[in-house]
Amino acid sequence: MGLTVLHAPESKRRTVDILFIHGLGGSSLRTWYMNGDFDFLWPKKWLPEEPDLSTARILTFGYNANFAARKGRASLTIGDFANDLLFHMKYNYDNDGKMGPVPIIIVAHSMGGLVFKKAFIHGHLDDQYQNITSSIKAVLFTATPHRGTNLAETLSRILTSSIFGHSPKEYIRELTRGSTTIDELNDTFRHHAAKLQIFSFYETLTTPIGPINVMILEKHSSLLGYHNETPEALMANHHDVVKFSGQDDPNYRSVLGALRSVVSTFQSSKVNENETGKALEAIKEWLGVVRSPEEDLASLRSVRKTGTCRRLLQKHEFENWLDSDMHHILWAHAAPASGKSVQCSYIIECLQLQQKSCVYWFFKDGDVQKRSLGNMLRSVVYQLAVEHGSFRRALIQAMKSGIRIENADARAVWRNIFASRLSNISLDLYLVVDGLDESESSRTFIDLISSINMSQNRIRVLFFSRPLSNITKAVQKARRQITITEVALTDNLEDIRLMASDEMEYFLPGEEFKEFKHEIIEEITSRSQGNFLWASLTLKMVVNCHRREDVKRVLQATPDGMDRLYD
């Protein structure tokens, strides 16, 4: 269990870590060699002999995925295995050195790919593991059930009825096609995976299971369908897809080629990354950037329920804005507590997934730093510098020319840094801003963005707010200069229904309560009047009840809506 080092070069020569993660029923060693012969343990025996990989440290991770274990052990989940993986990656090291200082490549088989995805998501959301996950640059998925497998349900039934004391495993249930775990992993992982190099190898032969041969994973279940994914077929069944007969085995050559390709990109980009990092640090200090909106984005992502926030993408106003070939502003407005910030975070991540150049900010009343228009512009400028080398070089020139902006107000930052430097650069840009009504000056923001006059660029701005009169007046004035479209976010009841269903999933378990729970979900949805805060507070009271009578009493005592809080 835990991490095992299979090969370690001298610490000063180490340039990359390659970590192997086994799948269901496998082990940290046995999964990776053929016919029970240790001489075929290719990560240990063959990879270090490859010239391109001689400076790679090679490790393998083991966890208790033995589905034939007897009853009495705790029922573990994929999330438990993922947390164990993160812990060992950060804290389990010896003289060979800890993980993080050099790039990390993951090679995962079967369920091991899901364990990695869950760990990658958790690591991005937990400060103590972010340095680990940020070092993961590539993953090789081998026969990973991204969309689940129907055989998982069969295996779970067999273990449940076993006369030998076997017990069903939670992580097997999670592998079932269409399970909540599978859906949530796919919905969340794609928001973190844009910068990963991804190779997905899929099986093409059936696997013997008892007296029959079965295709455990069809091709479509082994592929993510991402733009940064390279799919490749291997002539092997599910178990043998990571077991090779020799160094001339075509399947081994395919996997080796992927590893070589990834490592070569590290070597060519190392010098450039060092120079870029120094430049960005200097720009960040010069701009005085103090807050990163990534924290807000991650926080909103963590509360967003699977399947929500998709209606705005289907509105023709949004589609026209997205595909506009000119400067265009879209104002999305809705009542308080109607889910605007969560909706905004979803749009940002959708744009990022589409590889759009997207910069963003979340205004927050009550936080001096987050309500500042100047801080918003400084952050946006820095985000552009991170994404675009030409803009970064323009900022470096501005720094060298002696321009000082530490005490500059928002208009000065816009005039001297944002607009003036962008005007000479060809750029297709999306700016997404949440909570404009919570900024120090919504009118100034609208005045600035409506004055955009850059012939080489297309800048599309999307901002979310309440439909306040001062914003309405500023928008009417700005329409003389730029195209502005409004869209009202009024149809959020389905999202509230999904949230309520998720919160009540484990409330009053049992088939006899199914209809009662459905009635409660529908009542909360209809009485919320589109207010997520009301629905959330009501749900918290409901799930603490133990009897039907208590639930009915809570609902009867709770007034509809929360409009009076915003009068």
From TrEMBL:
GO terms for cellular component: endoplasmic reticulum membrane. SUPFAM superfamilies: alpha/beta-Hydrolases, P-loop containing nucleoside triphosphate hydrolases. PANTHER family: AMELOGENIN, GPI INOSITOL-DEACYLASE. InterPro entries: AB_hydrolase_fold (IPR029058), NPHP3-like_N (IPR056884), P-loop_NTPase (IPR027417), PGAP1-ab_dom-like (IPR012908). It comes from Aspergillus sclerotialis. Keywords: Endoplasmic reticulum, Hydrolase, Membrane, Protein transport, Repeat, Transport. GO terms for molecular function: hydrolase activity, acting on ester bonds. Residues 307-466 form the Nephrocystin 3-like N-terminal domain. It is found in: Endoplasmic reticulum membrane. This is GPI inositol-deacylase.
